[in-house]
Write a structure and sequence with these properties.
Rossmann fold; OB fold (Dihydrolipoamide Acetyltransferase, E2P); binds S-adenosylmethionine; 7-stranded mixed β-sheet
Length: about 475
């Protein structure tokens, strides 16, 4: 019956609150209606896009009353681009909603006794806070309804971001407020150069075209890595593009390219060529220098990464005698950050080049009490591994959005470390894992940290302590 609701228009729906994944919630005839891109307090007409027996999903088609909490979005791409969907909500309220998301997820999913969730640590920078952006070249630029209705002819090549849920449509970006430094200039000037020179923008449907993808990484002290992915093995076109970037932006400290003839844009398995400069950039944190290679993960908001790591360090509360396991260590940033306060830190991570960087980061910073291993966590962290190493007193874990594999959670229950510091970018999967860990652990502290202003995403750190034996 509910499927019949599809495409039905519901009028004058009052938007009540924010739910998970940044969607807002209203009610229609007792049923929950999830609506994207609105704000609590709005009154809207919506069109149902999905009908289920317990809920409806809908898109706003007309706003009758704007919430008094709304603010004017600062970006001209707002509403089309999927990047900063919460620009219409003041930063103060964004932080309130993010903390509430953590409370809701833990109450709904973890269902264990909880301490009060601490006030969220806000980000000093609410614009230009990202250190990495990934732009796509496409010969299939997304046209807005107004552009189509205008009857004018538009340039169809685009360099920018994917339209949400559309793999084949790209929004041409002329200014992005997420990344500062040379990011906007490099993207715009490279785009203009490619158009002038007739260098082909990628055709995703037919899998051809020279220019495919552009990655820009920056550091707090203005180092920059620019990586161009080419969709054709055309050395003349590649040299022309790279030489333009090299001449026009001599300040790029790592200028690189990849020839990617595969169907997808991931390049972990491809060779990265250094055209000019170094093959890495370095971020500095509390006197430590972290080397970041083109294939390595680094937290995308460098200033807030420091705030996050300080929380993790405070929760770990190390005295210098502990063995710490840093699970999902990436380039070993947390491991090396807490090493001076621990007896030994052991980091485990899936991506091999990241582990190479982690080891090198330890050496460069004269840290001699860290060990790093590459491999899938559920395979590496087993009984043999544990018997070959010292038992962990403290475990710091920072898994990807999917959370920890059940085998890993079971291993943690078996290891019985005194404390677990669980860092997560997805409170829902974190709450799920905490529910399992609650068999042996109490939740002592919950600290949300905002790494991604203008989005609904929230980072969260939980301190778990082993239950007292009865
Ligand atoms: C959220 S990042 C955390 C990185 C690091 N703690 C930091 O702060 O920079 C998650 C990391 O987990 C790694 N990862 C994802 N799945 C994994 C798995 N199954 N086994 C081991 N590592 C994994 C990713 O490569 C990534 O580096």
């Amino acid at each position: 019956m509910s499927r019949k609701m599809k495409n039905k228009v519901l009028e004058q729906l009052k938007i009540e609150r924010i739910a998970a994944e940044g969607k807002c919630v209203g009610h229609h005839e007792g049923k929950v209606v999830f609506v994207a891109n609105v704000a609590p307090g709005d009154v809207v007409d919506v069109r149902v896009t999905k009908g289920r027996s317990s809920f409806l999903e809908a898109e706003a088609i007309k706003i009758h009353e704007y919430s008094s909490d709304r603010v004017s979005p600062f970006c001209s791409h707002f509403g089309v681009c999927g990047g900063c969907k919460w620009q219409h909500i003041s930063y103060e309220l964004q932080m309130t909603y993010k903390r509430q998301q953590v409370i809701d997820q833990f109450e709904r999913i973890a269902k264990v006794p909880l301490p009060q969730v601490m006030p969220i640590i806000g980000s000093e920078k609410t614009q230009y806070y990202r250190n990495k952006l990934d732009f796509t070249f496409s010969n299939n630029r997304w046209l807005t309804r107004e552009e189509i209705d205008s009857g004018e002819t538009f340039e169809r090549n685009a360099l920018g971001f994917h339209v949400p849920k559309r793999f084949d449509k790209i929004i041409d970006i002329d200014h992005c407020y997420l990344q500062g430094n040379i990011s906007n200039d490099v993207r715009n000037e490279l785009g203009a150069f490619a158009l002038k020179e007739g260098l082909g923008y990628y055709d995703i449907i037919n899998q051809k075209g020279l220019l495919r993808n552009l990655i820009i990484r920056t550091t707090l002290d203005e180092q920059s890595m620019v990586i161009v992915q080419f969709g054709a093995d055309d050395q003349e076109g590649i040299d022309k593009t790279m030489e333009f970037l090299h001449q026009r932006f001599p300040e790029i400290t790592a200028l690189m390219y990849i020839i990617n003839l595969k169907k997808n844009e991931t390049f972990q398995d491809l060779e990265v060529h250094t055209y000019a400069g170094k093959d890495y950039i370095e971020e500095t944190m509390e006197g430590l220098k972290f080397k970041i290679g083109p294939k390595s993960f680094y937290q995308t908001n460098s200033s807030q990464a420091y705030e996050l790591y300080k929380v993790a360090r405070e929760f770990a509360d190390l005295s210098g005698n502990e063995v710490v396991y840093d699970l999902y260590t990436g380039t070993g940033t947390i491991a090396n950050f807490v090493a001076k306060d621990a007896k030994q830190v052991i980091g485990i991570e899936y991506v091999e080049p990241a582990i190479v960087d982690a080891k090198e980061n330890a050496i460069r910073n004269n840290i001699d009490n860290t060990l790093f291993y590459a491999g899938d966590m559920k395979d590496v962290l087993d009984d043999t591994f544990v018997s070959n190493h010292q038992k962990a007193d403290v475990i710091i874990t920072d898994p990807p959005r999917a959370g920890m594999h059940e085998d890993v959670v079971n291993m943690l229950l078996k290891l019985e470390a005194e404390k677990i510091v669980y860092v997560s970018c997805n409170p829902a999967t974190q709450a799920r894992d905490v529910a399992l860990l609650a068999e042996k652990y109490d939740v002592i502290k919950i600290q949300p940290v905002d790494m991604f202003p203008q989005t609904y995403h929230v980072e969260n750190v939980v301190l778990l302590k082993i239950k007292e034996q009865e």
